[in-house]
Design goal:
The structure is a single chain. The protein is 0% helix and 49% strand. It has a six-stranded mixed sheet with strand order 2-10-9-4-5-6, with no helix packed on it. Strand 7 and strand 8 form a beta hairpin. It has strands spanning 2-6, 9-11, 17-24, 33-38, 45-50, 57-59, 67-72, 77-82, 91-97, 107-111.
Length: 113
């Protein structure tokens, strides 16, 4: 099983980024996928979650209305569209699969002017 994130970087406050996560080694469309983030000094927190069919999405209160999770089962990929980014969104973003709880290595997002 492999879970690989990409798309992080440096962005100014108010800007946007889209993270991607490609997974392999299991039947992707059958499993819930999640984005977590690790903010310095805080515990890792769930940002967003999406069911296998993409029919139910769950978001942390802190990102509702700004972040959108989606998936393309044909490409074994999930996305996190992040808009109106704030300095408090700075951290390492991780992709997680419900399949045996595999994690990616994370991608750094830095929101700063």
């Amino acid at each position: 099983v492999q879970v690989v994130e990409s798309g992080g970087g440096l962005v100014q406050p108010g800007g946007s980024l889209t993270l991607s996560c490609v997974a392999s080694g299991f039947t992707f469309r059958h499993f819930v996928m999640r984005w977590y983030r690790q903010i310095p000094g805080k515990e890792r927190e769930l940002v967003a979650s999406i069911t296998g069919a993409g029919s139910i999405n769950i978001y942390a209160d802190s990102v509702k209305g700004r972040f959108t999770i989606s998936r393309d089962n044909a490409k074994n990929t999930i996305y996190l569209q992040m808009n109106n980014l704030k300095p408090d969104d700075t951290g390492v973003y991780f992709c997680n699969t419900e399949y045996r709880n595999y994690w990616g290595q994370g991608t750094q997002v830095t929101v700063s002017s």
